[in-house]
Structure formats: structure tokens, C-alpha cells
Amino acid sequence: MTKQKITLFWFRRDLRLDDNVGLYNALQSDFPVIPLFIFDDDILENLPKNDARVSFIYDSLQNINEQLAALDSSILIKKGKTQEVWQSLIEEFDVQQIFFNKDYEPFAIKRDLAIAEIAKKHNIEVLSFKDHVIFEEKEITKADGLPYTIYTPYKNKWLERYHLAGQALEYDTKPLFSNFSKNKFGFPDLKTIGFERSTIKVVPHNLTQIANYKETRDFPALDGTSYLSPHLRFGTVSIRKLVNWANKKNQTFLSELIWREFFIQILFSFPRVVNHNFKPAYDGIQWRNNEDDFKRWCSGTTGYPMVDAGMRQLNETGYMHNRVRMVVASFLCKHLLINWQWGEAYFAEKLLDFELAANVGNWQWAAGTGCDAAPYFRVFNPEIQQKKFDEKAIYIRKWIPEFDLGYNEPMIDHAFARDRAIATYKAGILK
């Protein structure tokens, strides 16, 4: 029996039907489009069985499948090692084309090259598209073609290119929806994938909450953030729609979106930063890496209320306010002299919005070892940070219910820790 010729669109970090560049182009194919998602064993095997992000991905795929059902179509869900899954797909279907949106992380780049090689052996056309960012790879560079490593000039060039274009082009996918394949695939339950539902939930995003973003964003007790980061991470929202909105409504929020692209560009251009200091001169720092100190930091029992509230919020909800992230990261690297990689790995395990580029970039910023980093001699005082940004301890009391009963003594004196950190950095920075 002759198999139907089809196009496969591979969902990854773009879990939406609207304004999806790769999908928009796939739906213009000469062949019916089967939408596909692969639960990758190489990623899943390192996650707890109740990982909240897997629950969110699953729910987002269910939402897509419900939209497809209204079009008499469905999404094909597969689980396994990606290369093996693709080999079986090529055997199962007469695949003519594979479409997907680009991912700029080292693991993803290597994976996609391997899939392209498999497709090439079977004369299958592979097409990839920019969807996750406004500007990718080498689109924003210095005059000599080299990547920017300082944020402000990168931002200025980014804005210049953006305003020159007028705005980011949005893609109206709906008129092409009739080109989805009419195949009906069964949608697996979460247990079939090997997971159970997490009690931690991704909060719906809300742009109305950031009307006064510039004035409120540093105060964790105020509900002044958008909760967009997990949605951006997994692509349930379009970066083009967000950027165009922010350009009209909120320049401070736009700057934060540009920071995201800056770190993605850094990771793409300097993939070694995943496991190494951006500044090799900092390789000589003698970290203490005390495991007991690290456990107290992880559990939110350091005796510094701002630090502890942040870690407890993270452990309980998968979120942490951005100002508090800076305080807890500085405390780990400088007060406790624990390598930023320990903190980065813990955040990667817990954060709902974990994105490798931003996580590595921000941790190296806090440690002083990254590009455009905080200077090594800047050591946040958690008590001053509390007085400035949570003076009435509203945020702290929310996450530390025992706060008013006589809170723990700080595990280390700030002045001592600051002096020790500066001395250790000075001694360790290679000339």
C-alpha cells in the first residue's frame, strides 16, 4: 500500500499554533502537515518524575491538540531517544519535508545536525527558521563582525535594527490551518510518558500587571511582574508579539527582553560558557565549596531573611523574584564562596523558567566571572537589600512564617564574608 506523502512540523520550544514561523512555512508545503512533539529520553531521564515543567509542556500540548481537533486533525506525540524516534518516523511515513524552529543551545544544535544527517540519507528536505528570538546568531554584531560582549552597545544596535524594520513581523498562521493532516493520533496520558502531575503550577502570564514595571519591578512583595518567563521559555507566547507590545507600552520591559536575546547570543557565540568562566582570568579563584553551607542555602536556612525567603519561594513554587535572584546568587558566590556552577545547577533543577542561556549568563554576572558582569568587589548586603526592597518584610513573612518568632542568626557575618570574598577574588584572578 502506498504511503501518503507528508510534511512533519516538529514542535520544541514553540508550543503554540499562532505566529509560529516554522509552522507558518510548513503549512505552505505541498503536502499535508503532521504536527509532532518528541519527549526526549536524553532530557527526561535527568528529571524527577513530578517535574513541573513536564506537566506544563504536557498541558500545552493538550491545548494544541484540542485546537487541532476542531480542525479535524491531531498532534503526534512520540517518546524516546530523538535520533531513534526519527528513524522510526521515516519508516512509518513517506516524509518529504521536516520543518522546525531553531534552538541555539549547544545540545540542541548538535541534535538538529544529527537529525539533518538522517534526513539527508533519505532525501528528505530539512528547513529551520528563526522564531525564538527577534535577532539570531550573527545578526547583531560589532562593525568588525564579532559578537558584542557588553550589553549596552548590543542593546543600542538591537534597537537600531528593530526600529529600522519598523517592528517585528508577525505571522498569521490561521489562514493555512486547512493544510494540517487529517490523521487522528491518540494522545497519551502523563503516566505513559513516565511522569506524574506536579503540584507546582505555571502561573498564567498577565501583561496588565506590569503597567508600572519600571517603578515596581524591584519590590518582591508587589505583584509587579508578568509571569511571562516560563511561557517565553517554552514558546506558548510569541516573542514578536511581546516585543512589539513592549516597544509601544513599556521600554523598561523591552530592555529585559533584549537582555534575554543578549545572553542567547553569548551562548551561541561562546558555548564554552556552559561549563567555564567567560573570563578565563577568574579560573584561579579558590572556591570553598562547602557542602553543608550549600545545603543551608538550598533549604533557605542561612539566617538572612531575604536570601531564605527567595530560596523557599523557589523550592515551593518554581519561581523567584528577579531582584531576589541577584541577592541569593551573590550570597552563594561571595558570602559562601561556592562556585556559581553549583547555584546554576540548582536553579536549573528548580526554576519553571529555566533557560540555559539566561541561567548561565545571570549566574556568571552575579559571580563576576561572565561578560558584562558585576565587578568582583560588589558584594550585595542582604540586610540592606531587605531594607531597600522589602522594608516592611511583607515578602519575607510570606515565605518565612516563623520570622516574627525570633529568626535564626546569620550563618556568617556580612563584613567578614565581604572582606574574605574580595581577598579570595584578588588572590585568584590570574594576571
TrEMBL record:
Xref: SUPFAM superfamilies: Cryptochrome/photolyase FAD-binding domain, Cryptochrome/photolyase, N-terminal domain
InterPro entries per the UniProt record, alphabetical: Crypto/Photolyase_FAD-like_sf, Crypto/Photolyase_N_sf, Cryptochr/Photolyase_FAD-bd, Cryptochrome/DNA_photolyase_1, DNA_photolyase_1_CS_C, DNA_photolyase_N, Rossmann-like_a/b/a_fold
A GO MF term: DNA binding
UniProt KW keywords: Chromophore, FAD, Flavoprotein, Lyase
Cofactor-binding details, from the entry: Binds 1 FAD per subunit.
Photolyase/cryptochrome alpha/beta domain boundaries: 5-134
Residues marked Electron transfer via tryptophanyl radical (site): W287, W340, W363
A GO BP entry: response to stress
Top-rank taxon, per record: Bacteria
Record Pfam families: DNA_photolyase, FAD_binding_7
Cofactor: FAD; (6R)-5,10-methylene-5,6,7,8-tetrahydrofolate
Binding site for FAD: 213, 225-229, 253, 256-263
Family indicated by similarity: Belongs to the DNA photolyase family.
Protein's UniProt name: Deoxyribodipyrimidine photolyase
Organism, as annotated: Flavobacterium hercynium
